[in-house]
Amino acid sequence: xxxxRDLWHIYEGKKEALRGVRLTFGNxxxxxVGPNGSGKTTLAKHLNGLLKPTKGEVIVDGMDTRKHSVxxxxxxxxxxxQNPEHMxxxxxxxxxxxxxxxxxxxxxxxxEERVKWALREVNLEGYEDRSPYSLSxxxxxxxxxxxxxxxxxxxxxxxxxxxxxxxKNAEGIKKIIRKLYREGHGILLxxxxxxxxxxxxxxxxxxxxxxxxxxxxxxxxxxxxxxxxDLDRPRLLTISxxxxxxxxxxxxxxxxxxxxxx
Length: 262
Ligand SMILES: Nc1ncnc2c1ncn2[C@@H]1O[C@H](COP(=O)(O)OP(=O)(O)OP(=O)(O)O)[C@@H](O)[C@H]1O
What we know:
- InterPro entries: AAA+_ATPase, ABC_transporter-like_ATP-bd, ABC_transporter-like_CS, ABC_transpr_CbiO/EcfA_su, ECF_ABC_transporter_ATP-bd, P-loop_NTPase.
- Residues 2-234 form the ABC transporter domain.
- The protein has 10 helices and 10 strands.
- By secondary structure, the chain is an alpha/beta fold.
- Among the domains are: 1-76 and 155-162 and 186-230, 3-Layer(aba) Sandwich (Rossmann fold); 232-262, no CATH class.
- A hairpin with a 3-residue loop joins strand 1 and strand 2.
- It is globular.
- It binds adenosine-5'-triphosphate.
- Adenosine-5'-triphosphate (ATP) is lined by residues 11-12, 15, 17, 34, 36-42.
């Protein structure tokens, strides 16, 4: 379980980026949303100790982030950054995924096993000898997830995992996220894409000016006036409301309901 207790983060002694945030989560898919500058990245960086609290505390599976190193916390909380290509530096996919487990000091055998497993999880088997830079946008995103998975973290933070991807690649990422969740990972999705929130999240946390202003289920979240927070309503919800249908999470559900009506 991750517990964020009355967390304040003040940059350079001035900018109050987080102001008394409280949050507890475990094995669930949470969407962390809010307008630009609301504090999402700052909060996420506290969860694996990249930032330390100015005030309050963050406890990750019993570990106080102030008392543990980023390396220790990274075994429990994996962070897949936005624009993953900036992260790659090895000559091939195998070495890229092996980098994390190598740093954990694992045996060659265990490293190989983890790399194979992580590549299988994201459907990149057979890519071991390819250069990371030769991959497509969707494949790069999957590789970034594999690199983090190879550390076997319990929690995953995914920063804008589908931004810039076409529909097919975005679908692939969504499937992987659902699978990881079913396998027991807690997933925190940072996103501006409300369609993704609608489809994937069970729970939504909304930050505004460094404060948590909403924490609840996805249906309730979409009842808020999102324009106040500079967020769009998902197209699917707008369309279903216009034609008098109920709340739908995916195009498939929507089409089924339409078919039932006719
Ligand atoms: N290193 C820093 N030094 C000073 N201020 C910072 C620093 N990093 C972030 N901030 C400020 O803290 C506030 C929160 O930033 P943060 O990046 O956490 O927001 P965000 O919700 O992730 O935004 P976005 O959606 O644009 O990525 C912003 O006002 C930002 O300008």
